Amino acid sequence: MATITGKVLRILAFNSADETKEVVDLIIADEYDYTRVSLWDDKAELVRSGELKAGDVLRIENASEAQAEKRAHAGKNARIAKLATDIHALSHAKSSNLTVLAVARPEKGQVCIAGIAENGEWIRPQGVYESDVFGSGSEKIKTLCISKVYVDAWRGRRPRKEDRFFVFCDGPARELNAETRREFLDRYTDESVDAVFKSGMSLGLIKPRILQVYEERKKKKKGQKSHELYIRFNFKDASGRVYRRWSCRCSDFYNSWNELKRTHRWTYGWRMLRYLRRNDTYLAIGLTYTDYGSNRLEYGAYPMIVGVHVLA
Description:
Layout: E1 2-11, E2 15-16, E3 22-29, E4 34-40, H1 42-48, E5 57-65, E6 71-74, E7 79-82, E8 96-103, E9 113-116, E10 122-126, H2 130-134, E11 145-153, E12 163-175, H3 178-188, H4 193-197, E13 203-206, E14 209-217, E15 229-236, E16 242-248, H5 251-263, H6 268-278, E17 280-287, E18 303-311
Parallel strand pairs: 4-6, 10-12, 16-18
Antiparallel strand pairs: 1-3, 1-5, 2-3, 3-4, 5-6, 5-7, 8-9, 8-11, 9-10, 11-12, 13-17, 14-15, 15-16, 17-18
């Protein structure tokens, strides 16, 4: 049995472990490291009732340590106490200054984010939820902003080179201005789509010529109608190769598209294409997971656009 003391940094999404038990996961950290603690049964109810929340400092006794590193469980025999003190969580832990280049639309409550760290590495934090990005009425993770993030090795299934476990983010520390945006994007622009995906990377940045941008209704089973729309791009990269029907997941671009659609009902598609062509448009591109069991996928997975950046 273990005793864990630390501040609650994040409350992960609720999930059912089986038909009878409910579990809530917390990220709890002291000054040096974090632990992912699963609260079971009546302990999970403490979160649902609002008795425990992010920012609380807790002392958890009789927690059972899991086989996985930095994991623990607090069930019926555990004792949880709130402490009237503060902890400078992760103040002595290693962090990364991440320039965020992708914040995708939420999918089933989760958000795909990606960016480039100060050492030039692409990082894709995993296990990011809507509350981590859009909580408290403001964006905690914004594109073309530098955010101080804490990540760890990703121990989940189907790992990609850039995948990391998301521990915590302090929020945007600094926004890139117009001059530094262009310098940053030009510095990390890849030569082509092939230069990214055939080098073993699953994230990259290109500066293509946009040929077409349009929306397409999501397909559903026969006889059913869908009201959900996806935006797709056709483009030519710097190598001259044309790519068609790439799905766009960029949250900011969807907001811009829908605003243009609201104000220019009949001409929004043409106006957006003209805007993208008149200005320098950079696309952050990514691959989905790669274990589909299909030999016909060129890059072993499905490519998509995860960030759209337009500089006048």
